[in-house]
Amino acid sequence: MLYYIVCSIVPHFFIFVEKEASCLMQWKNASLKYESQTDRLILKVLTPNYANAVLNFQNRNRESFEAYEPTRPANFYTASYQQAVLKCEWDLALKQQCIRFYVFRKDDPQMIIGTVCLHDIRFAAYSCTEIGYKFDAAFRRMGYASEAIKKVMSLAFYDLHLHRVFARVMPENKPSIYLLESLGFQYEGVERGCFFIQNRWADHLRYAYLNPSTDN
Fold this sequence. Notes:
Largest sheet: 8 strands, mixed
Helix content: 25-40%
Strand order of the largest sheet: 1-2-3-4-5-6-8-7
Strand content: 25-35%
Structural class: alpha+beta
Number of helices: 6
Shape: globular
Number of strands: 8
Radius of gyration: 16 Å
């Protein structure tokens, strides 16, 4: 069996979570860069103008991504659907409720090679977010996922000032488990029947990483 480095998360456009009123005051005071760089990568929140680039990314990786995500709508693989998703993502990013960074290599800044997303960002007493990620099959095992995730975690901890970042991953997704553990995420347990994926309720392992500056 072939395993893929894809963190198993439900895409934010399938779930919308009501936020506490106190959160709204909190995110207005949080600073966040909507475009960042690492040594090799550019990470940015995209506008609907990038629909075709996102569609190409999804089409190239259709088989591997679908193995770890809920069944897609019939029109998912269309430019119009991706444009609507990007509009939704942009609006949620401005509200700092869910922020998806698309990942590009500096030596090819037109081609998307992955995404890293902070889902269901919660401030106030919760101060946490779920991180999800997926990368193009042609660019795995090159350190790009680790490099991008480290950058987004830094933004979560030091720009959004969150206390906790957690991830869910299917037990059979060994490369993703290895990636989380190599980044310092700690195993917390099993969420049984966590998500309905490919016609079955799938268990997920839960990992978490605490902000070193707030861990006490």
